Amino acid sequence: MIYLQLIWVYLKIGVLGFGGGYAMLPLIQEEVVEHYHWLTMQEFTDIVAISQVTPGPIGINSATYIGYTVTGGSVFGSVAATLAVMFPSFVLCFLISRAYRRFIDNKHVQGLFVGIRPVTAGLIASAALLLMTPDNFIDGWSIVLFLVCLVCMLKRWVHPILLMILSGLAGYLIYV
Description:
- The protein is mainly α.
- It has two domains: 2-132, no CATH class; 137-176.
- 80% of the residues lie in helices and 0% in strands.
- The radius of gyration is 18 Å and the shape is globular.
């Protein structure tokens, strides 16, 4: 039964997750933490962190890890969640690409794309706010680390990969 629920959840997320992986995070959190209670918020936050530092899209990485976790360590759970989240995007991209050239200049299609852009930005902002919990900000050092990283990213002083490595090192030095 868990496999069918997992596939259903990730099919829904795959259909509704406009804007990529970060936009999917609030949907994933709502389903796996709030609705089904498969994970705690702390476990979800850890999965998001792991999904960010592993190669590949965060939505697919998190689906793979969550599928594995909620099915008790089953590789089939990983495969089921990953394929379920990818399938709607694959079908939609295939269908849209076939029709896009024909309707690219249509004012209704252009209006649709203009309407989707701010929603995507809102979903990504929601994902950021979703992760601003006491689980992630355990003391003053974590707040300082967040602010330093935020400024470095906004000013483009440090490459994101180097920033992740330095943040991991700082976390290790501060908390171990």
